[in-house]
Amino acid sequence: MTDQKDKSVPTIADVARAAGVSTATVSRCLNAPDRVQKATRQQVMAAIARLGYTPNFGARALVARRTNTIGAVIPTMENAIFARGLQAFQETLNERGLTLLVASSQYRQDLEEDQVRNLIARGVDGLLLIGYQRSESIALECARRGIHAIIAWAFEPGRPQPAVGFDNSAAMAALTREVLALGHRQVGVISAGTGSNDRARKRVEGIRAALRAAGCAADSLHVVETTYAIDAGSAAFRELMARTPRPTAVMCGNDVLAVGAIRAARQMRLRVPQDVSITGFDDIEIATVIDPELTTVHVPHREMGRRAALALLEALETGTPPAPVELATDIRFRASLGPPPPDPRTTA
Amino acid sequence: MTDQKDKSVPTIADVARAAGVSTATVSRCLNAPDRVQKATRQQVMAAIARLGYTPNFGARALVARRTNTIGAVIPTMENAIFARGLQAFQETLNERGLTLLVASSQYRQDLEEDQVRNLIARGVDGLLLIGYQRSESIALECARRGIHAIIAWAFEPGRPQPAVGFDNSAAMAALTREVLALGHRQVGVISAGTGSNDRARKRVEGIRAALRAAGCAADSLHVVETTYAIDAGSAAFRELMARTPRPTAVMCGNDVLAVGAIRAARQMRLRVPQDVSITGFDDIEIATVIDPELTTVHVPHREMGRRAALALLEALETGTPPAPVELATDIRFRASLGPPPPDPRTTA
DNA sequence: TTGGCGAGTGTAAGCGCTTACATATTCCCA
DNA sequence: TGGGAATATGTAAGCGCTTACACTCGCCAA
């Protein structure tokens, strides 16, 4: 089938023949133009253009042992959480002549591992990964091949791995303190599954830590784990509202869940924040589009992407792993967070 | 730097030696396991596992002339428009053992062309492209290499190119008729740049056609072109509201713009739909999260992605380009669309 | 004049893999 | 019991490219 391929895709040998030079000269024109005389080079370039020649990437990678390609494995492309940071990552890479290959793991550790292997087999020179949690065989494999892997969207003090991120636990603890300061004592939490998602786990830990520090009883915290989707956020919110005592504030593991919670509140005719407060995490665009606008933890996505790219670039050049970088987050106070209702109606 | 690479990345020869067989047998274990005896295979597999061997993708592609990889170039990853369809596309591909490589073009034709060439050089077996509009050299190049390219997110009757999409113009015309039926006569439009985006252009054309069919004067249509972003939608909405006569309905080229428009309306203390109606296109998740919920054209994203994958798969197998497929869209009536205000206040 | 040098170019050896073909082994039936 | 088919495995060519090394040539200092 489609055997017209046969002779119509030009190789470097075709170009060499057409230009009356050797394949080495053609190769040099492409990779080190200043090492060939101008007249020769022009002839070669003309032949390349005439034939529509494109170097075969696989062959090139096979011998050059460098692909100028970076791989990234993100949990999902379906929501905007990683989009902006990844965009900045890609832009910075492109400026330096590198290409980005993206794969998604659907928040599944086994799939992430597959995708990483796949990218490595494709010869990526470096890797961007989300969070710390993964089988350690991946790190071993990278080390063996001399591939630098950098972690983003997370930073845990004391961890030696190269990372450009923020302290999920501390950021969420800070937000929790604000919630408590307003007088809330019954706090509900909607989180992504904490089993295989260390960012989600750290965020919940941050909430627990802040509650503990404030002397709140552990049983005043209601946690619902669910998947990262708007509908899931809505369902989880309903579940929390059915509990006794009913939470006066619902803190969500990210903005997507929070938006689902707000929608559910609207459908339940609960006023936000008069009847119940809702908070998010990430500060993606949707946070200022929803009514009421969402109080959330702002994450410097673009800066994170850019700095992760720079760190990786540097690692590639120097051969030494970059030092971890902690980025600051801050809280964006918007309408969805307020004091608890005066009558605490602790029973639904 | 990192020259530990040297002997520590195992090749097929290392595996062969470790298992006491030839490289051909190792290769067969991987590519046609039933052509080697069970005992031999087990030894080979054990050696592979012990050494942590991964076939080098470039070398494999070089000789096999097939990569089992499909490339997709989408305009942007930043918003959710393409996310769901692409996800379905990928899932269907994965089920069949193919890998997806995604690149983004930022809605720029020159970048799209670069990305396509890049993907082709990487040896993709097939391509998913958005919309019809691009330099024809791309089609030529694909034909020469026997690469099947399939168009999605658009379907134009009479066009021969393989496509799985919907009729942007007809869909928008249908929505426009509903707007007109409610009594609106002053219609504003917020569109993405129509210069290099044929879907955006067709949508605006659909609106014009419906207005013309209803006997509306051409000057009752106010079009603002902007970029695909929530903020841009907000700004464009403000601009439209400043015009005289002021539109009673604002039709947006997609949901992202519409959401920006709704936010701007809220900030301007305009009630939607009592003071002004707003419609979208795409029916992404945000449409049911915004308040008021958005009346929009529902696009079967997942089905489109799945069917595009199936069409491509079939093309790969049979070698013949698949016939174009038109998918139906329908209108989701929600709160953002209502009759025009009784007092038309045609002046701001 | 001669030797040496540098610049420009060519020759050819692989990179890691698949696969056509050759070879070895087994098994069945005449 | 022998011949040939069927099965299992090995040998080696070559995919398209880069690059070490060899070669040629013109130039200048000795």
Key features?
homodimer; 434 Repressor (Amino-terminal Domain); Rossmann fold; 3 domains; six-stranded parallel β-sheet; four-stranded parallel β-sheet; elongated; DNA-binding
Question: Explain this structure to me?
Answer:
Two copies of one chain form a homodimer. Chain A has 348 residues and is α/β, with parallel strands linked by helices. Chain A has three domains: 5-55, lambda repressor-like DNA-binding domains (434 Repressor (Amino-terminal Domain), Orthogonal Bundle); 69-166 and 300-328, Rossmann fold (3-Layer(aba) Sandwich), CATH 3.40.50; 168-298, Response regulator (Rossmann fold, 3-Layer(aba) Sandwich). Chain A contains 13 helices and twelve strands. A six-stranded parallel sheet of chain A has the order 2-1-3-4-5-11, sandwiched between helices. The first copy, chain A, has a four-stranded parallel sheet with strand order 7-6-8-9, sandwiched between helices. In chain A, strand 3 (126-130), helix 8 (136-145) and strand 4 (148-152) form a beta-alpha-beta unit. In chain A, helix 2 crosses helix 3 (23-31), helix 2 (12-19) crosses helix 4 and helix 9 (168-181) runs parallel beside helix 10 (198-213). Chain A is elongated. The N and C termini of chain A lie far apart (68 Å). The model of chain A is unreliable at 1-6 and 344-348 (pLDDT under 50). The structure holds a DNA duplex (30 and 30 nucleotides).
Strand percentage of chain A lies at: 5-15%
List low-confidence stretches of chain A. Answer: 1-6, 344-348
Per CATH, which architecture of the largest domain in chain A? Answer: 3-Layer(aba) Sandwich
* Main CATH class of the largest domain in chain A: Alpha Beta
**Overall geometry of chain A:** elongated
Structural class of chain A: alpha/beta
CATH topology value of the largest domain in chain A: Rossmann fold
Query: For this structure, what is the CATH homologous superfamily of the largest domain in chain A?
Result: Response regulator
Beta strand count of chain A: 12
For the record, give the distance between the C-alpha atoms at the N and C termini of chain A, rounded to a whole number: 68 Å
Q: Give the H and E element order of chain A.
A: HHHHHEHEHEHEEHEHEHEHEEHEE
Largest interface, C-beta closer than 8 angstroms, per-chain residues: A-B, 56 and 56 residues
Quaternary:
homodimer
**Major sheet description of chain A:** 6 strands, parallel
- H/I helix tally of chain A: 13
Q: What does the average pLDDT of chain A come to?
A: 92
Q: Any idea what the radius of gyration of chain A is?
A: 26 Å
